[in-house]
Specification:
CATH architecture of the largest domain: 3-Layer(aba) Sandwich
Radius of gyration: 20 Å
Strand content: 5-15%
CATH topology of the largest domain: Rossmann fold
Strand order of the largest sheet: 5-4-3-6-7-8
CATH class of the largest domain: Alpha Beta
Number of helices: 14
Mean pLDDT: 95
Structural class: alpha/beta
Number of strands: 8
Number of domains: 2
Shape: globular
Helix content: 40-55%
Distance between the termini: 20 Å
Low-confidence stretches: none
CATH superfamily of the largest domain: NAD(P)-binding Rossmann-like Domain
Length: 345
């Protein structure tokens, strides 16, 4: 329903009764000719990376894993605007990334692709800071080459230790780890730099309550929840990203397209006036999906992976028309009782 209502994209779920990566890949390849794109959902780390990488290479339609790329895009958008609010340079701050699941691995990949120096990032898993001396990562690099790779290229200071050492002196904290509260302590956040930014995105409960983070000196706090300000949620990303991708018949969704979407999200909020409690749009600000569609489609054309060439104005008109029609259609179905209204709190 979110695909349809927010992006004008027709979608339906297909469930697979297998956990085997090769069977999943083969099943997707078998059904791919009947679809314009594929959205992967809820695949475990690290096989989610392998499945996505294989399908992106072997199919000529876009394949997207929202837990990875969608979350990474909206997180980057939030970081862009949060840093503008506090007056810091995205390429000169230190990032502490807690948790090495699908969302954070993808975020680091997107962040580095956007131009941030590798050494400015410090990553932490359940055993501590990622660094080249981690024998456990080296031993298991065949099972999880992604963590081993980032152990080699990030953390220019070669810090060791646990979360406390990683958080100290950082400007931006991105946490997608063990649900809290209490996973992250206030005293750890007090060691961050002035005007710190913290995205605490564990579900259903963030690693530390937002007000506790603020009490500890963090200036801008984001979570994955809608009942707090600055919700960092992938629902802001995928409808518009797919709209733009499909409108130009793109062969894939590149990291550069995801970055273009992030900047479009950030710009949408910036035009309305960003502040400590408003760094990204909400789902109700539906113009963000049109803006993303235009940015993503134009980036695909620029990269030479679009089968259909449109101008930015043509893309905007097409996205606006399709999304408007989808929302009108959804309203008719809701009024007729075929779609249940959203629950009221």
């Amino acid at each position: 329903l979110l695909f349809k209502y927010l992006g004008g994209v027709g979608a339906f779920p297909i469930m697979l009764d297998t956990q085997d990566p090769e069977e999943i890949i083969q099943a997707v390849k078998w059904i791919a000719p009947g679809f314009g794109g594929v959205n992967l959902e809820d695949f475990a780390n690290p096989k989610c990376f392998y499945i996505l990488d294989r399908l992106r290479k072997e199919l000529d339609i876009p394949v997207w894993h929202d837990d990875q790329q969608g979350t990474a895009s909206i997180t980057l958008a939030g970081v862009i605007n949060a840093l503008k609010v506090v007056g810091k340079d995205i390429n000169k701050v230190t990032y502490c990334v807690i948790g090495t699941g699908a969302a954070n691995i993808a975020f680091v990949r997107i962040l580095l692709s956007a131009g941030v120096p590798e050494g400015n990032v410090i990553m932490v898993d359940s055993k501590g800071i990622l660094h080249p001396g981690r024998e456990d990562l080296e031993k298991n690099q065949d099972k999880n080459p992604y963590k081993w790779h980032y152990a080699q290229v990030t953390n220019a200071e070669h810090r060791t230790g646990d979360m406390t050492e990683a958080i100290a002196g950082s400007d931006v904290l991105i946490a997608a780890s063990k649900p809290g509260p209490g996973t992250i302590k206030q005293e750890w956040l007090r060691a961050m730099n002035k005007d710190a930014i913290a995205f605490i995105m564990a579900n259903p409960t963030p690693e530390i309550w937002p007000w506790e983070a603020k009490e500890a000196g963090v200036r801008i706090v984001g979570t994955g929840r809608s009942d707090f300000s600055n919700q960092v949620n992938n629902s802001i990303g995928f409808p518009g990203i797919f709209r733009g991708t499909l409108d130009v018949f793109a062969k894939t969704i590149t990291d550069e397209m995801a970055i273009a979407a992030a900047y479009a999200i950030a710009e949408t909020a910036e035009k309305k006036g960003i502040n400590d409690n408003y760094i990204v749009p909400t789902m109700m600000e539906t113009e963000v999906f049109v803006n993303e569609a235009v940015a993503v489609g134009m980036k695909a054309i620029e990269q030479g992976i679009a089968r259909r060439i449109l101008t930015a104005d043509e893309l905007r008109h097409e996205a606006e028309t399709k999304i408007r029609h989808a929302q009108a259609e959804t309203k008719i179905l809701m009024d007729a009782g075929h779609i249940a209204p959203p629950p009221r709190d």
